[in-house]
Automatic annotation (TrEMBL):
Cofactor section: pyridoxal 5'-phosphate
Keywords: Aminotransferase, Pyridoxal phosphate, Transferase
Keyword Glycosyltransferase attached: no
Family under the similarity heading: Belongs to the class-III pyridoxal-phosphate-dependent aminotransferase family.
Record InterPro entries: Aminotrans_3, Aminotrans_3_PPA_site, PyrdxlP-dep_Trfase, PyrdxlP-dep_Trfase_major, PyrdxlP-dep_Trfase_small
Organism listed in the record: Kordiimonas sediminis
One GO MF term attached to the UniProt entry: pyridoxal phosphate binding
Protein name, entry field: Aspartate aminotransferase family protein
Pfam families: Aminotran_3
């Protein structure tokens, strides 16, 4: 029997869930008054739950790139599980799927990123990067290079070490995480909020210079690496101003600072190229991948190392004292390979560049006329609709007013899932989204904005 065949079953599930399930990124007190929403199935861009069908413009959490519910993926997982349900990759052991996936990723990745370490989540890939960066500098005989530069508005994970990278103090304070001496934050290249009268190019220069200034202030001899998402997805789909990334890469090279690019969201096609490094014209020393690697069908992530970085890690004989039981899991690796095959066979990334990406951009930009909308940012199939109180001064609504949450809730009533982040509505739909689904999204969003604007007139 399906778990939610009747209402009693839904209530039963909600009750046992509330009693025993501690949810990530959820206020447990709020769960006491409002039960969890039970999602039961999904297909294409639609998720179903509690008798409703919703258009998921977030692809889960920006991961279900090939769309939900593909039979081919289920068959691949079943076959992989029958053949080799598990074996590890410690102590010089491999299996066909892990070897082929590493080879495929090396072929796809830009620059000299040719070596892959497998993990299970974006956080683990970034955590691995942090450890290997320390390892690298110790092996290079530069033990003082320990400080990581990160940025405001960044999100890199929720382990102890990756939380410290995040530009969100709400992720530090409740856990007593101290960043001082380990991580230094510099400004986000958030042109709309901080650009003032500067041109995009001038702002790119300004934001890149903030990194150089910080390196000089602390001393290049103490800076191990700079970490950044090509587009700062989680905290507002913040797009880099033109020229920013090549400048950042140049600064890192100049001061012998490693560049770790977090392509957990942007990697595997979201910007219309396999990797956002191609979109923005730069190359990193390390790259983390997760979400789109398997389109969320299995937990798997990867950290890719450049040849020169890998050379140092592999130079002297010593066991690498790092790894996870399920690193390179045979089922997850087989599923990731099938995901890549589908992306290639259906030309889903090419479609973003030539067809559906431009349609998405043009459709969302019609919202610019709305009195609540200050900016619309779109790159491939990731987008931000930035709300403002005043289109000229770009004044922000106080976060505690929950204006953006109000719009997202109103959108939910129209059966649309978008993600509120501060005063920004973030969207990153499956690559399979159709033009009519985009129309449905933009029409629904437009009336959600109308409802919120009308409500604000009574404040
Ligand atoms: C850019 C980026 N890096 C890392 C992570 C962490 O990934 P995970 O949640 O799989 O640990 C996320 C998750 O949203 C992310 O957006």
């Amino acid at each position: 029997m399906a778990p939610t065949d009747d209402n009693n079953n839904i209530h039963m599930l909600q009750d046992i869930d509330r009693a025993h399930h501690l949810h990530p990124f959820t206020d447990p007190q709020a769960l006491k008054t409002a039960p969890p929403f039970v999602v039961e199935s999904a297909e294409g861009c639609m998720i179903q739950g509690q008798g409703m069908s919703l258009l998921d413009a977030m692809a889960g959490l920006g991961c279900v790139n090939i769309g939900y519910g593909r039979t081919e993926m289920a068959q691949t997982a079943a076959k992989a599980m029958e053949e080799l349900s598990f074996y590890h990759s410690f102590a010089a052991i491999t299996h066909p799927a892990a070897a082929k996936l590493a080879d495929k990723l090396a072929a796809l990745a830009p620059g000299n990123l040719n070596k892959v370490f497998f993990a299970n989540s974006g956080s683990e890939a970034n955590e691995t990067a942090l450890k290997l960066i320390q390892y690298y500098w110790l092996r290079k005989g530069k033990p003082n290079k320990t400080i990581i530069l990160s940025r405001d508005f960044s999100y890199h994970g929720s382990t102890l070490a990756t939380s410290a990278l995040n530009g969100l103090t709400a992720m530090h304070e409740p856990f007593g995480i101290k960043t001082k001496g380990h991580v230094e934050h510099v400004m986000s290249p958030f042109w709309y909020r901080f650009g003032g009268d500067m041109t995009e190019e001038a702002f790119a220069e300004h934001a890149a210079k903030a990194i150089e200034d910080k390196i000089l202030e602390i001393g290049p001899g103490r800076i191990a690496a700079f970490v950044g998402e090509p587009i700062q997805g989680t905290l507002g789909a913040i797009m880099p101003p033109k020229g920013y990334w090549p400048k950042v890469a140049e600064i890192c090279r100049k001061y012998d600072v490693l560049l770790l690019v977090d392509e957990v969201v942007t990697g595997m096609g979201r910007t219309g190229n396999w990797f956002a490094q191609e979109t923005y014209g730069f190359e990193a020393d390390l790259m983390s991948l997760a979400k789109g690697l398997s389109s969320g069908y299995q937990p798997i992530s990867a950290l890719m190392l450049s040849d020169s970085f890998a050379e140092v890690v592999e130079a002297e004989s010593a066991v690498l004292q790092h790894g996870f039981t399920t690193s390179g899991h045979p089922v997850a690796a087989a599923v990731a390979l099938k995901n890549i095959e589908i992306l290639e066979r259906e030309n889903l990334i090419g479609r973003i560049k030539s067809e559906i990406g431009p349609y998405f951009k043009q459709a969302l930009e019609t919202l610019l006329d709305h009195p609540l909308v200050g900016e619309v940012r779109v790159e491939g199939l990731i987008a931000a609709v930035e709300l403002t109180k005043n289109k000229v001064t770009r004044e922000q609504y106080p976060y505690e007013w929950g204006v953006c949450q109000h719009v997202a809730n109103a959108a939910l009533m129209q059966r649309l899932i978008v993600r509120p982040a501060g005063n920004v509505l973030v969207m990153c739909p499956p690559f399979t989204i159709s033009s009519s689904e985009i129309d449905q999204l933009v029409n629904g969003l437009s009336s959600a904005l109308d409802q919120t604007y009308a409500a604000l007139q009574n404040v």
